[in-house]
Amino acid sequence: MDQKPASESKEMRKLIGLIEQFAVLKHATVAMGVRMADAETIECAKRAVENGYADVILVGNQAEIEKASESVLPKNSPLPFKIVDTDAPEEKIISLLMSGEVDAAIRGTARASDSLSNLKKACDINEIHRIAILLTKKGHPYFFAPVGIDEGTTAEDKVKFICLGTHLLRRVGVLPGVGLITTPDEAGRKEAAIILSEMKKRDIVAMDYGLNLEKAFENSNYIIAPNGISGNLIFRALTFLGGGDGLGAPILMDHHVFVDTSRSAGHYTKAIMVASALSKKRGNKE
Q1: Which residue, 196, 229, 228, is CA-closest to 210?
Q2: Predicted model pTM
Q3: Do 282 and 159 meet the contact criterion of CB atoms below 8 Å apart?
Q4: pLDDT band at 138 (very low <50, low <70, confident <90, very high)
Q5: pLDDT band for position 3 (50/70/90)?
Q6: Whether pLDDT at 284 is above 70
Q7: What is the distance between the alpha carbons of residues 127 and 178, in angstroms, rounded to a whole number?
Q8: Which domains does the chain have, with CATH numbers?
Q9: Neighbours of 282 (CB within 10 A)
């Protein structure tokens, strides 16, 4: 059967453009956690506003944010974003999200463990499912999971990741193709068999590529790592060493949009774009 690899499909090539279009159309209000504000963080927020992705609210120490803005913005010019003054951005961004004061939120430079812990408590959930959006050096987009070191530890959890992620792909108009990266031992083979059986029941296209990462990326658009630790390492290797890029990792929830980010990445403009695009806000009408 002559089928074009999922990773090279027309829909995937259009994915980033679609996300950008949705972000501009919705123009949501997005909160971003800020700790130790610097020029790069301010520049990312400024660019998101200039690109029309969202109205941005920086949540952190106001004095630090204003000081960092001085090296980015013209003297005496108005700030392109609002500031919510707090010394506990990990709590405040979740509070703003839960209250509906913002349409979506990204972690930004807020602490990961505290932000996610507050999110789980506020949403009354025990587990988090983060799905990273990855761009390779050549600009090809992929969905990738798990990326949290305590995520994807069982076959059942990976099935949840796949179901949630394929639903998200379909929401943005992409036909999912799942590629499993699995260990060659007996435990890895058994887990792959369980996952593939469940995918067949759900009519989701999935294939086990073992440790052949190249083939998985060549033929799939949603990559499932053996576990969160290996997934985190693969993601970091591809983005920080391999010239790729990350657009953030949306946490899949029914009623709220929260995009996790890596503090060492700094590409918060794209995470704001993704958060706005995924928000429940309806598109603006002229």
Answers
A1: 196
A2: 0.87
A3: no
A4: confident
A5: very low
A6: no
A7: 22
A8: 1-125+256-281 (3.40.50.10950), 130-252 (3.40.50.10750)
A9: 9
